[in-house]
Amino acid sequence: MTVLSQTNKMDAQAMNGVATQFSFTFRALVDVEEAIKAVVTDTTTSTDTDLILNDGGVDGYTVTIDDDGVGGYITVNDARSTDYTITIYREYEETQISNYADYNSFPAETVEDDYDKGTMIDQQISEVQGRTLTLPITVTGVDTTLPVPEAGRPIGWNDTADGLTNEPSLVYQLQVDVDATPDYLGATSGDGVLRVNTANLSYADGGDFVTLDTIQNIGTTASPTFNNLTLTTLTMTQAINIILDEDDLVSDRDDALATQQSIKAYIDTEISGVYSDPLTTRGDILVRDATNTTARLPIGADTYVLTSDGTDASWQPSSGGGGSASTVTYDVTQATHGFSVGDVLRHNGTSYTEAQADSETNAEVIGIVSAVADVNNFTLQVAGRITGLSGLTAGSAHFLDETTAGAMTDTAPTTDGEVTKPILVADSTTSGYIYNMRGLVVGSGGGGGGASLSEDITQATHGFAVGDWLRLSGTSYVKAQADSVANAESVGVVSAVADVNNFTLQFGGKVTGLSGLSADDTYFIDESTAGAITNTAPSAVGEVVKPVLIADSTTSGYIFNMRGSENVTAPATVVGADAYARFNSTTLGESHNVTSITHSSTGQYVVNFTNAFANANYAVVSTAQQINVVCDVTNPTTTSVQVNIQRRSDGAYINAPASVIVFGTLA
Fold it and tell me: Do 266 and 280 meet the contact criterion of CB atoms below 8 Å apart?
């Protein structure tokens, strides 16, 4: 076979801590793996390590040559980090082992291999020569033989520039007594002088000599120049005899310099004696009190804001001085309540009690206990980010527990009659975001029940149309409107009308058959028209910001019936999902900020983001478009998150269409 490539070495390839196979493309003789060499370079120290063929240790490697002898790859035992590179090259022994006997048939393949080997040896010699020092082709009459080595002596050209010689050392240690017989370096005359090469050290007037007195008194006479550095203002009239490392600078000497460490230690000690830090708790701030003294203002309670009365600063509830605040926490007084931080509560019509996912009634969650003042008082948080919890799984959705009243679990209930009630997405083991979603009753299996997202309603002369958003008023459904908290409590949207007395109410999942939507927008209950929605959040005082749907087209969207908040002042900007997608296997449907879906294995899908998140602590909600299945999310990173789909009955992973929504901060 011919040798068409002119190289016998691959340029250094980067290692990444994962890959163990590295390819080469140059010609190699099949079954002569020992000719393929590898060197690993530590780029932080510029040190090389030769790898060992067929060795079992961390420096071992194996060789695989392609059948046609053109290229192949090596496999290393240790996938080193990105601090390393690997160089692969070919090196044959300079031998010829073929024996050509007289009168035998012409061994074409053997001859070809011998010619190839000779060519490849020429290439490796050429590669080595390419890394050696050479003279220009026009130079003649020069002897490049190296002189016998001498310690500390550099090699240079001789005076006639036709050979190499050991030059004098570039560094000299001299001790000169100017009051006695002077010492000389390359000098033959002069009193009290040190002669040096004028190209390296010269007096300003260009003379060949520099007096020791002049060197000792730089700055007292005309400016001397050393290696192009002119010292015109530096005058040292006081001798420096020692460098001291004393943290207290106790010596107080005028002939000593202090180390950087000792200066820092001395200053730190002096400052600590003057300044006393009054702050004791994370979040404390410094203020001037009534006596004009620096004082500590302790961190305020959760959701409190820093306010001023014109004279002093203080922490106050976010509701301010008056009015009905748009708040996410409520202070509740209930005698001997018995609750703890993290308890999930409902209201039984008379008092608060612990919620439980064992029935629809018991699963009507209102909020989570975020603080307990005493046996008769506690704080209930109904939305937003809550802290001070324990035992959470970061990145996972948490549901109301079906077994323990007041508890949460990261596994959705699966028994018929229990309620799947997602209430929180954790961003750490002790905190998360409250998303009080509508609960779904687990169906009765194959009998046609299942976790339904809609309900057929009979109500005489209801007067509703498809797309009307409804609330309950006593025992009847009426159109919801965001002009007050009571009117804005929507329960779902009319998805079908059978006749004047019957309609279908949908309260979760994807709803179709609507009109006038803008794809990708978040929609809110309208403050002006009863039963309508708008993509502009209400802003007037007293109106309610109630997000209910994210549109994926002009006629459809996903219902996310979030808890509304009443405006006291202009509300904060409401932001839609930072990423969402509906997908079936790797086929991507309606989506935002999702570039592709990777089907990693049965029931497991990786959602890849177009724009990365700032961190992996975002909130994720995922649902499957199939009954009797449950979704969870794992492995969140800044660029992707994994959705897992399991059958409720046996926990087996299955393939099914699904949707995912992500709220977080983009990078």
Answer: no
Residue ranges, CATH 2.40.300, the chain? 329-440, 453-566
DSSP secondary structure letter of residue 649: T
Q: Where, residue-wise, is CATH 2.60.40 in the chain?
A: 579-663
Encoded tokens for 643? 């959705």
Distance of CA 595 to the CA centre of its chain: 19
Radius of gyration of the chain (CA): 41
Residue 490, token pair as written in the block: 């929507």
Region of 429 on the Ramachandran plot (φ > 0 left; ψ -120 to 50 alpha; else beta): alpha
Identify residue 555 by its one-letter amino acid code.
T
User: Is the pTM value of this prediction over 0.85?
Assistant: no
CATH 2.60.40 is right for the domain spanning 329-440: no
List all residues 6 or more positions away from 654 whose beta carbon is below 8 Å from its beta carbon: 602, 603, 629, 645, 646, 647
d(CA 51, CA 60): 6
> For tokens 């990173």, what's the residue?
637
Q: Encode 127-141 in three state secondary structure.
A: HHHCCCCCCCCCCCC
Query: Can you tell me the distance from the alpha carbon of 462 to that of 458, in angstroms, rounded to the nearest whole number?
Result: 8
CATH number belonging to domain 579-663: 2.60.40
By the 10 Å C-beta count (0-12 exposed, 13-18 middle, 19+ buried), 246 is classed as: middle
pLDDT tier for residue 533 given thresholds of 50, 70 and 90: very high
Task: Give the pLDDT confidence of 621-649 residue by residue, as tens digits.
Answer: 888 877 778 888 999 999 999 999 888 77
Alpha helix segments (H runs only) across 254-413: 260-274
Strand partners, 605: 599, 643
- Three-state SS letters, 461-476: CCCCCCCCEEEEECCE
CATH for 453-566, options being 2.60.290, 2.60.40, 1.10.287, 2.40.300: 2.40.300
**Buried b or exposed e, range 117-126, using 16+ CB within 10 angstroms:** beebbebbee
Determine the Cα angle at 98 with ends 94 and 102, to 5°. 140
